[in-house]
């Protein structure tokens, strides 16, 4: 039968697979979604291991390196032979004629890039004290020299390594949307469920509130709410506030979906069948209603995360969110506030690439999940 | 009746039609070499289970299959304006095929509820065909459309003309759909399970309507169904399709009296006849239609067949063989295997 | 239809009340009030205030009352006298501060709205008709990047690119000459050029969203049975696309229109701060920071009310477009 492409596996299991394994199977086929999932994993892992991967700690900076471009890495020595990669230290030179301070490379000594070098002390996962960093510089004698710095993405206005700050910023920027999504999820299911299941006056009130909240443009609303954060609070409290503010809007869309699904599913025959069989209301909700649309909720959530990432970035950017010394991608991007700083230090835009990649990855993953969750595809 | 139709001229001839569908898993051939002829004024029934390729075949005639589907072979149609033309050779988006669609060959679909756009009135949608093919004069077109609506039994046609599909019942929508198909007096009408979605009483009405309209308009009908009961009522000849192939083809009377292919016998056995005793069990074919992607070699019906011959039916591919007047069948168990039992190295399916 | 509109109008009133309460509540949430930040600002410059001064100021602005009393007075004045309160920062009525920029804000928002739909409808239709073609992929890719970039940063990137290529810095909608000499005809081309960047920056995220909606909707509609019926009838592909699919695909697009207005307001707020546009975004930010609450509250209220009115209008348009809704409401 040359007409047919033969498949040796008779996929009887296909008909018997559970909803989740089916979803997973379809998701694996969606190349872009799979790629995005991998990318997100890498991003989250690097945020988790930020202390280790970053060569410098959050509060390490060098005024010598203020606003300097990405450190140039040399692969060949003076004679043009391939060499172990090395960098030069920067030095300040006072130009006697123009009275300008010029920062240039001090080519007198090479600093080699080395892996697993000791640096600033930290606690891995907040538990294991260590000073090991993924990479760092050693001088020609093989000793760790902390006066030379390697900033692969350049340095910011305080002279801190942007790469390290991106990793630490990821801890905030990548988790805030996640936590706020979790809060939205909870609120959405709860309020949407109440609204859909009970109906009547409760439903009406919740619907009006949702309508109101979704009529106020989100950034002005976020701005107004963040303005309410009392000044001078701790970083973790700030984190909590911002998370709550971001989830303030997220839940409304979700609640609407849940409510709609509840109302639609309530009329389904299988729910009626369960009710006739004497299943309790609570069990009907948990066992029959929620699984019926959980996959949709997860998709909705994944697609909602990019919004919170952008929201966090906007707020920090306006100075209404996280503030230095705490760091997030929005805080980092605050340095690109005006045209002059972008024109002089274009590398300060690098955090933006991380924002875009993350947002895109969540979008693609969400799209993939949506396709996978659709039983008719 | 058989002799009458045999002498009539052919209006449509399908030769070795194949339809390939691109899927994520690979290309599957859902229609695997179908041959059919339809004569002027006759009704040909195309019978088979869901997924056997009936609908794909019918849509291939009009060239309105999905983009993912590719049809090969020849579909020769005796067109008024183009003469005898291979419909598959025409550009599926071109003017020529569009002058055939709706005007000379029209189609009635399975589910009338979704066959109309909810955005426009029924009259608007029926009238569209009239305006495309018959007259540009809107007033005239409206009269023609109203006339056909009355003919198909839509009461109060003037009022109904300006109503939207959601204001129609299922049966009424099917009538409207038939009106839309007939408004240009086509030479061939393809009815793709026109009564499946309807109540039994409405089904009977619609079938009677189609029969009487066929007399009035003198058209041929390709009647697609999975229901042998309707076939008996409607058709002159019947072709039974299984897994993308015609497995048996005969005049309607013959197929009821003298079914040959095990699959056809199974189908006829599964029709509940009046007089069947309660204790007698209805025939039900074992198993399900295999997925066309992982199709084994040999006869497609092998796995489910009660008369299968191991070493023959799972090795060779049966071809249609004449076994009587206009009666053809593709089954080794009935006609014997031309390759001999046990088979030699020469394989039919290569 | 009239009954439907009437019913929607009635529902509008409670929503309006709730929305004003919510906004006022949020705006007065920050600890302290305008006097606190005012005193703090002036103290930093060396002025001294006695406790009596402060109490006097509070009394003058009515800031000692509980928030709902302040809210009640605010609403009372809006309803009875059209008075939206007093802007502490500007030292005049909120309404006059808003009027300075209201027309420009509305004009900018409206132009962006038109731009968004003007661009995204044809692109969405093209992408759906040429699904998986190079053009579709390219446009979808740009669209994704557009939605993934915060638009205020897009503003900086575009301004940077323009700066690198032309050496000019475009900030604001009007050049200094325009402001000095007033608008003249010869400035029109430059003004339009200056409009382009905000248009792209604020419009992009919304535009990309609409393109995706239109594309998905068109694909959905194309898969429907009635396109097959139309094709079997002999309709041309153009008829199928425009008469059937587009008409049906428009519904969700129309119902999303109010949402677009909301994203425009939202996007323009930050972008305007970056680009120094004389619209309400920057005013809102400073008002929030200095706790100039009536000004901030009124701006957010106006935006929200505009979105609500937009929702109402698009719902009515939807009912008019879709016979199913039209008839359900009639019967």
Give a short synopsis of this structure:
Chain A has 377 residues and is of the alpha+beta class.
Key structural traits:
heterotrimer, B: 350 residues, alpha/beta, 8-stranded mixed sheet, 4-stranded antiparallel sheet, 13 helices, 32% helix, disordered C terminus, C: 331 residues, mainly alpha, MetI-like fold, two-stranded antiparallel ribbon, 2 strands, 80% helix
Q: What characteristic shape of chain A results from the CA principal axes?
A: elongated
Low-pLDDT regions of chain A:
1-11
Q: Which CATH class of the largest domain in chain C is shown?
A: Mainly Alpha
The CATH architecture of the largest domain in chain C can be given as Orthogonal Bundle
Structural class of chain A comes to alpha+beta
Strand order within the widest beta sheet of chain C: 1-2
Please give the domain count of chain C. Answer: 2
| CATH fold-level assignment of the largest domain in chain C | MetI-like fold
Secondary-structure element series of chain C:
HHHHEEHHHHHHHHHHH
What gap, in angstroms, lies between the N and C termini of chain C? 10 Å
Q: Overall mean pLDDT score of chain C?
A: 81
- Helix/strand-derived category of chain C reads mainly alpha
Please describe what this structure looks like.
The complex is a heterotrimer of chains A (377), B (350) and C (331). Chain A is of the alpha+beta class and 377 residues long. Chain A is built from 13 helices and 4 strands. In chain A, helix 3 crosses helix 13 (350-373). By secondary structure, chain B is of the alpha/beta class. In chain B, a hairpin with a 2-residue loop joins strand 9 and strand 10. The model of chain B is unreliable at 1-7 and 342-350 (pLDDT under 50). Chains A and C meet through helix 6, helix 7, helix 10, helix 12 and helix 13 of A and helix 1, helix 6, helix 7, helix 12 and helix 13 of C.
């Amino acid at each position: 039968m040359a007409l047919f492409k033969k498949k040796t596996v008779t996929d009887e299991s296909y008909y018997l697979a559970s909803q989740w394994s089916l979803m997973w199977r379809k998701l694996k086929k969606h190349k872009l979604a799979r790629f995005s999932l991998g990318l997100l994993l890498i991003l989250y892992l690097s945020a988790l291991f930020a202390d280790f991967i970053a060569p410098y700690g959050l509060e390490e900076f060098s005024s010598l390196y203020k606003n300097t471009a990405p450190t140039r890495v040399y692969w060949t020595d003076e004679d043009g032979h391939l060499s172990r990669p090395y960098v030069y230290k920067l030095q300040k030179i006072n130009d006697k004629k123009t009275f300008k301070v010029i920062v240039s490379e001090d080519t007198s000594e090479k600093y080699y890039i080395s892996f697993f070098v000791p640096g600033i002390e930290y606690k891995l996962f907040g538990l294991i004290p260590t000073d090991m960093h993924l990479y760092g510089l050693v001088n020609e004698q093989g000793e760790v020299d902390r006066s030379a710095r390697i900033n692969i993405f350049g340095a910011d206005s305080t002279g801190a390594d942007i790469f390290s700050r991106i990793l630490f910023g990821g801890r905030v920027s990548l988790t805030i949307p996640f936590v706020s999504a979790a809060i939205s999820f909870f609120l959405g299911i709860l309020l949407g469920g109440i609204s859909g299941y009970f109906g009547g006056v409760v439903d009406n009130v919740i619907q009006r509130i949702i309508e109101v909240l979704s009529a106020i443009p989100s950034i002005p609303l976020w701005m107004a709410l963040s303005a309410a954060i009392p000044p001078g609070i701790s970083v973790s409290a700030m984190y909590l506030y911002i998370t709550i503010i971001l989830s303030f809007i997220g839940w409304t869309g979700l609640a609407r979906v849940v409510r709609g699904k509840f109302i639609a599913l309530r009329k389904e025959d299988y729910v009626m069948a369960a009710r006739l069989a004497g299943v309790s209301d609570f069990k009907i909700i948990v066992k029959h209603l929620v699984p019926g649309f959980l996959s949709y909720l997860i998709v909705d959530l994944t697609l909602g995360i990019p919004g919170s990432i952008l929201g966090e970035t906007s707020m920090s950017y306006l100075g209404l969110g996280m503030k230095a010394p705490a760091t997030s991608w929005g805080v980092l991007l605050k340095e690109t506030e005006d045209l002059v700083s972008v024109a002089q230090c274009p590398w300060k835009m690098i955090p933006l690439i991380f924002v875009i990649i993350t947002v895109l990855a969540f979008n693609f993953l969400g799209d993939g999940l949506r396709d996978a969750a659709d039983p008719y595809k | 009746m058989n002799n009458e139709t045999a002498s009539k001229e052919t209006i449509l001839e399908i030769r070795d039609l194949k339809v390939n569908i691109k899927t994520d898993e690979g290309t599957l051939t859902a229609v695997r070499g179908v041959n059919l002829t339809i004569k002027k004024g006759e009704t040909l029934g195309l019978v088979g289970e869901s997924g056997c390729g009936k609908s794909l075949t019918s849509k291939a005639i009009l060239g309105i299959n999905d983009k993912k589907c590719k049809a090969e072979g020849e579909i020769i149609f005796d067109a008024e304006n183009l003469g005898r033309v291979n419909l598959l050779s025409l550009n599926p988006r071109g003017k020529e095929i569009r002058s055939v669609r709706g005007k000379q060959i029209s189609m009635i679909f399975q589910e009338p509820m979704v066959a109309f756009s909810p955005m426009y009135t029924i009259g608007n949608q029926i009238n569209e065909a009239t305006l495309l093919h018959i007259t540009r004069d809107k007033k005239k077109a409206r009269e023609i459309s109203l006339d056909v609506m009355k003919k198909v039994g839509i009461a109060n046609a003037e009022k109904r003309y300006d109503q939207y599909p959601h204001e129609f019942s299922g049966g009424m929508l099917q009538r409207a759909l038939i009106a839309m198909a007939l408004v240009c007096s086509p030479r061939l009408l393809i009815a793709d399970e026109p009564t499946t979605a309807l109540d039994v009483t409405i089904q009977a009405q619609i079938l009677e309507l189609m029969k009487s309209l066929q007399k009035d308009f003198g058209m041929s009908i390709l009647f697609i169904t999975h229901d042998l009961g309707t076939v008996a009522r409607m058709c002159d000849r019947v072709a039974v399709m299984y897994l993308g192939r015609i497995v048996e083809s005969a005049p309607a009377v013959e197929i009821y009296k003298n079914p040959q292919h095990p699959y056809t016998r199974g189908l006829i056995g599964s029709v509940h006849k009046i007089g069947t005793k309660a204790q007698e069990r209805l025939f039900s074919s074992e198993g399900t239609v295999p997925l066309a992607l992982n199709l084994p070699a040999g006869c497609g019906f092998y796995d489910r067949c009660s008369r299968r011959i191991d070493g023959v039916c799972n090795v060779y591919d049966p071809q249609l063989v004449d076994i009587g007047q206009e009666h053809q069948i593709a089954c080794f168990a009935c006609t014997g295997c031309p390759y001999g039992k046990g088979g030699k190295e020469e394989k039919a399916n290569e | 239809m009239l009954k439907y509109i009437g019913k929607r109008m009635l529902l509008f009133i409670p929503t309006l009340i709730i929305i004003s309460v919510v906004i006022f509540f949020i705006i007065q949430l920050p600890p302290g009030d305008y006097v606190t930040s005012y005193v703090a600002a002036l103290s930093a410059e060396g002025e001294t205030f006695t406790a009596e001064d402060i109490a006097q100021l509070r009394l003058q602005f009515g800031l000692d009352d509980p928030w709902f009393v302040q809210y009640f007075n605010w609403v009372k004045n809006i309803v009875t006298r059209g008075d939206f309160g007093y802007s502490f920062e500007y030292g005049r009525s909120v309404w006059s501060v808003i009027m300075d920029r209201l027309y420009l804000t509305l004009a900018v928002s409206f132009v962006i709205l038109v731009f968004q739909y003007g661009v995204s409808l044809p692109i969405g239709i093209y992408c759906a008709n040429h699904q998986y073609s190079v053009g579709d992929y390219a446009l979808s890719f740009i669209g994704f990047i557009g939605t993934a970039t915060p638009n205020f940063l897009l503003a900086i990137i575009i301004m940077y690119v323009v700066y690198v290529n032309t050496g000019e810095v475009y900030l604001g909608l009007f050049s200094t000459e325009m402001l000095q000499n007033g608008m003249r005809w010869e400035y029109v081309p430059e003004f339009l050029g200056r409009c382009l960047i905000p248009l792209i920056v604020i419009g992009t995220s919304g535009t990309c969203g609409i393109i995706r909606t239109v594309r998905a909707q068109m694909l959905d509609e194309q898969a429907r049975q009635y396109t097959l019926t139309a094709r079997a009838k002999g309709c041309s592909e153009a008829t199928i696309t425009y008469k059937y699919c587009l008409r049906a695909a428009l519904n969700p697009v129309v119902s999303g229109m109010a949402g677009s207005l909301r994203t425009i307001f939202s996007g323009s707020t930050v972008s305007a701060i970056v680009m120094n546009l004389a619209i309400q975004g920057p005013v809102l930010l400073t008002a929030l920071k200095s706790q100039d609450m009536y000004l901030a509250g009124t701006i957010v209220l106006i935006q929200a009310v505009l979105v609500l009115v937009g929702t109402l209008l698009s719902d009515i348009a939807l009912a008019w477009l879709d016979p199913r809704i039209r008839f359900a409401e009639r019967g």
